[in-house]
Design goal:
about 230 residues; alpha+beta; Jelly Rolls; Arc Repressor Mutant, subunit A; 2 domains; 7 helices; 13 strands; disordered N terminus; DNA-binding; cNMP-bd_dom_sf; plasmid; RmlC-like_jellyroll
C-alpha cells in the first residue's frame, strides 16, 4: 500500500476517533459521481482516501478547462484554499474512479485544527502544493511543447500509481480530459504516444493502459522536469 494512502487512512481513523462530533463523514462514491458543481455553495472540505477526482471549470463559450486531477491523500476545498463558509465553488469536482472520500463541514474546521495539530500541518502543506501546482501549470501551458507536456503527464501518473515497481500506468481519464488539462488537442496526444512508442519509451496495451520502459529517456524528453506530486 502506498505511503500517501496509508497516511490518508491514518488521518481518517484519527478523525473518526476524536472528531466524530464535528460532522466528519466518510463515504464511497461511484465513478462519474459529481462531488460538487461550480457556483454551488462551498460548505465542506474534502480529503481523498482512494481514487481520482477531476476538477474542471466551464468557460463562457461552452468549452471546458480541466484544472487538474487529485489523488489519494489530497485535500481540496470547493472555493480553493481560501477557506470560508458560504463561498461559491470555483470549479466542478467529479469522481473519475470508484473512490473513498472524507468530508467535513467548514464551520467545524477551527475545532478540527485544534484537536488535530497534524491536520493543520497537512493542510498548510496542501495549500503550498496547490500554489506550486498552479505555477507549474502556467509553465507547462506557456513554455513546454506538446511532446514535453504529454511526457510529463505520463511521468506524473506513473509516480502517483507506482506500487511495487510496476511500470504500467492506468489512465482512467479520457484523451479529451488529458487534452483539456494540457491545453492541446486529443489528436496531438495520440501522435505523441505513437512517437514515444516508436522510440521504445513506452508500450501501449489499450487506451487506458501504458507501460513505461525507458523512464530516463522520458525524463529527458520532458525537459528534465520530473514531477514530484505536482
Amino acid at each position: 500500500m502506498g505511503r500517501i494512502l496509508v497516511e490518508a487512512l491514518e488521518f481518517q481513523a484519527a478523525i473518526r476517533t476524536t472528531c466524530g462530533q464535528l460532522g466528519y463523514h466518510a463515504r464511497a462514491l461511484e465513478a462519474g459521481t459529481t462531488i460538487f458543481m461550480e457556483n454551488q455553495i462551498a460548505d465542506k472540505m474534502y480529503q481523498i482516501v482512494s481514487g481520482i477526482v477531476r476538477l474542471s471549470k466551464g468557460l463562457q463559450d461552452g468549452r471546458r478547462q480541466v484544472l487538474g486531477f487529485l489523488f489519494a491523500g489530497d485535500f481540496f476545498v470547493p472555493s480553493g484554499f481560501v477557506v470560508g463558509i458560504n463561498k461559491n465553488a470555483t470549479c466542478t469536482a467529479e469522481a473519475l474512479t470508484d473512490m473513498q472520500i472524507i468530508s467535513l463541514p467548514l464551520r467545524n474546521l477551527d475545532a478540527l485544527l485544534t484537536d488535530q495539530p497534524k491536520f493543520a500541518s497537512d493542510l498548510l502543506l496542501a495549500t503550498e502544493r496547490s500554489l506550486i501546482q498552479a505555477q507549474q501549470q502556467m509553465l507547462r501551458l506557456g513554455r513546454m511543447s506538446a511532446t514535453e507536456r504529454v511526457t510529463w503527464f505520463l511521468l506524473m501518473m506513473k509516480e502517483q500509481q507506482d506500487d511495487d515497481g510496476d511500470a504500467s500506468i492506468h489512465l482512467p481519464m479520457s484523451r479529451i480530459d488529458i487534452a483539456d488539462y494540457l491545453g492541446i488537442r486529443s489528436e496531438t496526444i495520440s501522435r505523441v504516444l505513437r512517437w514515444l512508442r516508436d522510440h521504445r519509451m513506452i508500450t501501449v496495451s489499450d487506451r487506458a493502459t501504458i507501460t513505461i520502459i525507458d523512464s530516463a529517456s522520458m525524463c529527458h524528453v520532458s525537459g528534465g522536469f520530473y514531477p514530484s506530486r505536482l
